[in-house]
Amino acid sequence: MTIKDHLRAARELPVLAPRRWQRPTPFFDNVPLEPLVDENSFIGREPDRAFTRHLPESMPYLPKPRWEGSQTVIDGYWRAWDLTFRNCRRVPLETGFVSPFVDTAFNDCLFMWDSVFILMFARYGERAFPFQGTLDNFYAKQHADGFICREIKEWDGADRFHPGDPNSTGPNLLPWSEWEFFQQFGDQIRLASVFPPLLAYYRWFRKNRTWPDGTYWSTGWSNGMDNQPRVSAGAGVTNEHDHMSWIDTTVQAVFAAKILIRMADVLGRTADVADLPPEVESLTAFINEHMWNEKLGFYVDRRRDGTLSEVKSIAGFWTLVAGIVPPERRARLCAHLMDPATFGGPHPVPSLSADDPHYNGELGEYWLGSVWPPTNYMVLRGLTATGEDALAHTLARRHLDFVTTVYEQTNTYWENYAPEQPRPGEPAHRDFLGWGGVGPIAILLEYVFGLRPDFSRDVLVWDVRLTDAHGVTDYPLGPVATLDLAVAARAREIDEPVIHAKSSHPVNLEVRWHGGTRLVAIPPSA
What we know:
There is one protein chain. By secondary structure, the chain is an alpha+beta fold. The strands form five sheets. A four-stranded antiparallel sheet has the order 1-10-11-12, with helices on one face. Strands 8-9-13-14 form a four-stranded mixed sheet. The chain contains 14 helices and 14 strands. It has helices spanning 3-11, 55-58, 71-86, 112-122, 136-139, 174-185, 188-208, 247-267, 276-290, 318-321, 327-335, 373-385, 389-410, 438-448, and strands at residues 64-67, 88-89, 101-102, 109-111, 151-153, 292-293, 298-299, 451-454, 459-463, 470-477, 481-487, 499-503, 507-513, 516-522. It is globular and about 65 Å long.
């Protein structure tokens, strides 16, 4: 089957009769109950049926960037927000949804994988629309054993997949989205409310997606990278686990566990996650001992017979964001991101290494080489976690340049992009806001401008790497603070930036540049 055939098949899955989550199946339902689900306050919550806003009435509540000499990027930023607000939805009646949401923009379902990455940029508009509430609708549909379906139909609120289907759920990235939201706004009340369903889902994942050695499995559909050639010949590329230990899914378990541990520390619930540190330790050791392909210098899938895959997928970079790469391997792994023969081609970062026989450099052909905003964001976050800020900025600039060029040509943003020329990938959905806003909004603010909130340390990091004059007004931080930030043009990267900043509330600004670091305490403006 071609990728178009796979996509067509996905859209033509049989439609199940509308049903409430409490009675999800017409057959005997004998699943072990998860006590944490009793703490899930989203189940049965009265729906918030507030109307949605559009861009014109939302602009006062959005951050407003400026960049001298780059007006097209700024125009594209606003076009991305315009398309995003067009995809905001009121809670449909008789669905069991509890919050207005931003639509995935793929079909008539909410997707877990997509929603996580949409919220990486949409959180900057949280004061205009409750974007993070999109995830509330997944929590409201949690089953009594902790299961949450990865795709939920918007017209009746029913799961798209049976829990026993290998393709039914994943990736387990919900904790990441909630932690990023906490880092931006410091909302401990929300953190406390989402912790029980997140931990219950984690436990379900561990019970139902692991092998005896503790590693995790997935499929092309459930890990989000539909058609990558990772399984054995004869196995279904999109829907079979092939008895492999999947590198991304296993590492994501470590990543999710680490975040849940941090959440528990904030909330005083460390006893609830006492089993997670040993799992993090054992999985980290296993990954580094048994899933590192020394010949390739890359993290890969492990087959059922213990042999290692030869496929270099962007999935291997999840090890960076999870913080599990030993120092002696980081340089070799990161070198792939600048190597044109693997992941450092014209438009970084392709989803499949350029030296793979399945790689399609002209069209991308979905996950056979296309550049995807969500996985690019993951790579950048991983580089930040390992101190590779200069490389992150370089990759972010190149990605934004390509995305902006395609925006100039088409007046829109796309699901994915071709890896070797400025054009959409093929196939790719247009007007994909959707995670298409990751580049023109989140990557612009966080990696081109370098503004990265860290509420747990009570600072806003400003990693200034541009030498052009730039800044942002109405930048949201914490529960109530709004900042206006500007930096003057510089002759050289090593010159200390001249910062102008004001805030509605006290904020600590950690300014970084090529030549140093300084902490600036911004008092509240009069």
